[in-house]
Every structure is written in C-alpha cells, then in structure tokens.
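Memo to structure team: turn this sequence into structure tokens by end of day. - J.P.
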Amino acid sequence: MARVVVTGMGVISPVGNSIETFWDSLTNGVCGVDRIKRFDASRLKVSLDAEVKEFEPKAWYDTVQEIRKSDLYMQYAMGAAKQAVEQSGILESDLDRERFGVYVGSGIGGINSTIRETMKLAEKGPDLISPFFVPMMISNMAAGAISIRFGAKGPTLPVVTACATSTHTIGEAFRAIKHGYADAIIAGGSEASINELAMAGFINCQALNLAEDPNEGSLPFDKRRAGFVMGEGAGILVLEEYEHAKKRGAKILAEVVGYGNSSDAYHITAPDPEGDGAVRAIRTAVAEAGISAKDTIYVNAHGTGTHLNDAMETKALKTVFGENAYKLHVSSTKSMTGHMMGATGAVEAIASVLALSEGVVPPTINYVEPDEECDLDYTPNKAVQADLSCAISTSLGFGGHNACIAFRKAEG
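Reply from structure team:
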C-alpha cells in the first residue's frame, strides 16, 4: 500500500490567518479568547468566544460576486485551502485532476446564512429569499467550492461528525490515497458558528464556560475547567502519495502513518466516562503507525476544558500507553484557539505537524490548578523543545464520534 505525506497546509484561526502567524502565536502562548464582539451578546449568559480576527475574504476570492454566494464557513475554508495548495505547489506539477480530490467538512455548515434567510422570511416573505441560500447553507459546499476552484475531479466529499469532523476528513483522505483511489487530496474542515442562536444552544446544553475573564475561559486539564469556549476558522492540509510528491520534488512536511475511527455508542453529548471508544480510536491509529516505546511522542489532545472530556481523555491515554503515558508530551491548543468545532481537528493536525518539524511542543496556557484526575504532562504555560519522532491528534465529537490521526516526522 502507498505511503501518504503532507505537502501543504493553510489556516484561518483566532490566533492567526497564516501558518507563520498561527505557529508564532501557539509557541508564544497567545490567547485568542476575548469578549464577544461579533454580535450583541447581552441576552446570553456567556461573554467569551474565540473569533477570527482581520479576515478579509477579498484576499481569497477573485470577485465580489463569489463572496456574496459564499457563507462565512466557506470563505474560511477557501482561505485555508488556497494557502495549502499554494504551499504544496501541486498545481504546478503534471497532475491528473481525476485523481485529485477534496475531503473538507463542517460540523454545522452555513448556519449564518440560515439565520439571515430565516429572519428575511419572517420579515419580508418567501419571494425575497436568496437563490443562493441552499448552496450557502449545506455542509458539503466548502468541498464543492474548493473542488471547482482547483479543478479537483477525483474523490470529493464532506464529513459531518461534529467536533471530530476534520480529523475524520484527514483520516479518510489518508485511507483513500493509501489504498490507491487518489494521488492527492485537499483535506480539512471549516466552521463559522459564532452567533446568538448557536451559542444559546451550546449554553443550554451546559457545554460553554460562563467565565468573564478571557484567561479563565478555556482551561483544558485544569481543575477549574467549566466548559469550552466557542471558536471558529478553518484548517486545510494537502495529502499526497509519497512517490507522487517525491517525483515532483515537493517538500514533505510530515508523513501520515495511522488513523483510528470509532463510536462510543453511549450518549448524544457526554463521552463514555471509561473512554472505551477513544481508546479504540487511539489504539488503532498508534498500531497502524507502528508507534513504540522508542518514539518521542507529542499528543495534541482534544482537551476541550469540560470536566468529563479531559478526565476521560487522560484515562484513555493511560489505557493505551500504560506507564509510558507519563512520558508523552501532551497539550491542548484549544487553550489558545478555543474550540473550533468542525475545523478543530485539522487545525490541531497542523499544530501536530509543526511540532514535529520544528521540534517544539506548544503549551496548554492558563494552566494553574492541577487536577488529580488529569495527571499527565500537559506542557503547562510555556512551549518546550523536544526531539519528537511522532505526533497524534485526537478529536472526540458529540454523538460519540472518536477520531485519531498519527504523523511521523519527515525524513531528512
């Protein structure tokens, strides 16, 4: 079976809209959490989010008309995809477009368009609903728009598995290339769901932290944790068959070496407290990757800052790695980006690849009070240098969806 490598990456995030800015923010512990500015949040119990800053759609589209036909989640996806494709240089090669695909998902899709058009329907009637409402609303359209933009005619699909969405897109793209169905796939996810409706829903299912201080909002693995902070953005990677990349002289950023996909079959929002599903996803990825006790491993944890998730994830890592779990370099970059929902897996995969290539473990910031249930090395507050050989990134979504992908440091 084929080997699969990463040759391009792009990001739109609360801590930077380029790979360079994003990585500089992560390694310096920059907090992207702040007071809600996107809308009037006076009716909500929550006051914090992690918004994308200084995003300009005109930088990623050729015409204003294209922007008007695109929901914000699609715009974020396009910005990240253009970065990734340009870094990979794949369009400059002798590329078979029928073996070039797009796996880009969204947990929620075009919810801002849905809200806007619903209000228009109530106030002005059905005749004034936008003819582009449906394509702006549906969750597959980021993948469709990216496919159109880059002429990718190969395997193309979205994935919708809540917070695990873009870890699954990367994993499924990895499998498609590994088993010979494509030469390259643009893979990742996007989310733009910071609005009053979505946040009210998450508040009422008791998922969000109600803190008012931005430095007390996203507290993964800290005993004070009390829910996550809503984030947004997009992460995109170009995955490519190794020989295809090597032949065209592409710079290989990392190798994708393992993927696990499982379900808790337990509860619609709460994780299985024993972590059985997470264990199976992580164990599958680690086994396929051939990761052993000899490896120096970075874990970009799901680490949402909810009590149940962080305790369960810690337990799962100890179940998979045993005593070696205490040697893992673990961190949750959600402490800086907030929870980017359907984009979070891809953004954290990018952080994992950068950790491998740069030999730096990004921190879990605002970590103050250790919890006896969470007793691993979470890289508190400051980045550390480490000669890493492997990285794994976990994502655990509502509905019991679990995903884990594993990377190995690029050779040479």
